[in-house]
Amino acid sequence: MKKFLKIFVVVLLIVFVYLRIEIYPQLDLISGFSAKSVASGHFIDGRSLETIQKGDNDIDKVDWATNEINESEKLAVTKVYGLKTREAIYREGLGATLINDDFDKTKPYNVPKRTFLKNNLPYPFGNNNPIDTVFGDIDYAKLQKGVESAFDKAGEKNKRTRSVVVLYKDHLIAEKYAPGFTATSKILGWSMTKSLTATYFGILQKQGKIDIMKSAPIAEWKKDERKNITINDLLHMNSGLEWEEDYGKISDVTKMLFIAEDMTKPQIDKPLVGKPNNRWNYSSGTTNLLSGILRKQFKTHQEYLDFWYSSLFDKIGMDSALVEIDMAGNFVGSSYGWATTRDWAKFGLLYLNEGNWNGEQIFDASWAKYVATPTNGSNGQYGAHFWLNANGKYPDVPRDLYHCSGYQGQMVFIIPSLDLVVVRMGLSEDFDSNAFLRDIILSLKKDNKNSKG
Known about the structure:
- With 453 residues, the chain is α+β, with helices and mostly antiparallel strands.
- It has helices at 2-45, 49-54, 140-148, 192-206, 231-235, 252-258, 284-295, 301-316, 341-352, 365-371, 433-442; strands spanning 65-70, 75-80, 83-91, 95-99, 161-168, 171-177, 186-188, 322-323, 337-340, 356-357, 360-361, 387-388, 402-406, 410-415, 420-426.
- The strands form 4 sheets. The protein has a 6-stranded antiparallel β-sheet, sandwiched between helices. It has a 4-stranded antiparallel β-sheet with strand order 1-2-3-4, with helices on one face.
- A hairpin with a 2-residue loop joins β10 and β11 (360-361).
- The longest helix is centred in the first third of the chain and has 44 residues, at 2-45.
- The chain starts with a helix and ends in an 11-residue tail after the last helix.
- The relative contact order is 0.13.
């Protein structure tokens, strides 16, 4: 009996040590992810707690969390097995922010000023009902079949597509939503937000207010080799800085998104592990650093907040668009952009039209070419905060395709040679984008292979 008790105690100690070393530190991230997800999904898109837990939070380990919604205080409160309580607070105009115990909920805050587009035009250049246009060079039966192939059949839970929007020659030609989602549903783009963040540099460059080829304005880098890193290097994700982008464990990116108060800082402290413009390394920390650089371009916090809306979203009528902020008031440019599927498609259309929106040039046409040009070290798969098909990742799709891409398969595909924008939003990366795009492209008849130049 004594021998059995000794073995039991040893096993118990081993389990305790494992839980303390391997699992307990993860609880902060698990509860943080869950609280943020619940607050955003509920207060931004009006989803019920049950819907969020069965959909957005149906992720390994995240489903350990227990969540509550405090309607009066606009809070989501999360615990994991009664431990590691985290809160996320919602503020109108700013979205949800994951907070810590030191966060002052009573402190006044600035909110972006918005001017919504009222031009009485049909979608996509306005927000009125789209024109029911029929193109002679489209096989609509094939198109519909291709769109429907993106969705699960009744009883299935594999593709988990929530919505699809297809724009062709500046017109909406196909649209479909999963049960529970509509054209007004706001959906998190995750890392598609990175492409938004990069676009603001294109806008500032057109305005003559920034030179992306100059050294990044980071004081901490002035006295070492990091002083040679340019904004261009940061936009191309090839700064040479150390960064670990691993969402399956405690890493640079998870600590930044679910622990850091100021998300613009984590990348600043990283050392060089390669030469700038020679070592491509995907980094959400880099994008949030760029958000911090954008903030430095303005005299006040209010101007910084307003710029993200007045210069882009409100210009093209992305009325639903919202980018959430961190505890320090910075836009989380790496991950937290929300919009309806139609509005995400508008963003793709802006690039398809090389920065021109119904006659107004938002950014120079050269910027669209810049973001779609392969960066050194990426093997043709990445440009400037956009993913590319230059290396033939999608073999049945034109090589000029470039796209925004986010966690769980959020995609805005831009195909200039076919005058096509395709958006897919969902909850699974186990999705055959090549086959999906191929089927849509096959609905365009063979005589329609003209390029826009």
